[in-house]
Amino acid sequence: MERIGAARDLVLGYVHALNAIDEAMRVAIPLLERLADVLGLARSRRINRSGQVGTYSYAVHGAGCRFVCDNGSEVDVDFAADGSEVFDLWRLRWYGSQLIASG
Questions:
Q1: Are 87 and 74 in contact (CB under 8 A)?
Q2: 38: phi then psi, degrees, rounded to nearest 5
Q3: Which pairs count as long-range contacts for 67-75, CB under 8 Å and 24+ apart, including other chains?
């Protein structure tokens, strides 16, 4: 049961971090209606493919984006065709390893 709780906490932490990034990005870039819009804006050159927004740096890649907070924590996410956020075990493990390294 302890591992299930840890896995749940990792997923919830990732989602919480992603929500904080979404809020910060939408405040800083009024053109964003949702976080997935960062892809289209970068592809159309309305924003740079990488940059700094508040306490986050970002780098658009393929179908997603990697965000790094100024405290060093990283959140990597892909976006589905409908704009929903997509993450997998690899991204969760990477996010978790960043927490361990900074803690």
A1: no
A2: -60, -35
A3: 67/21, 69/17, 71/102, 72/98, 72/101, 72/102, 73/17, 73/98, 73/99, 73/102, 74/98, 75/14, 75/17, 75/18, 75/21
Question: What tokens does 94 get?
Answer: 């990477």
Q: Determine the Cα–Cα distance for residues 81 and 27; give it in Å rounded to an integer.
A: 23
- Report which residue type is found at 11: V
pLDDT in tens, 30-61: 989 999 999 999 999 999 999 998 889 999 99
Structure tokens at 75: 């959140």
**Does pTM top 0.90 for this prediction?**
no
∠ Cα 60 36 49 (to 5°): 20
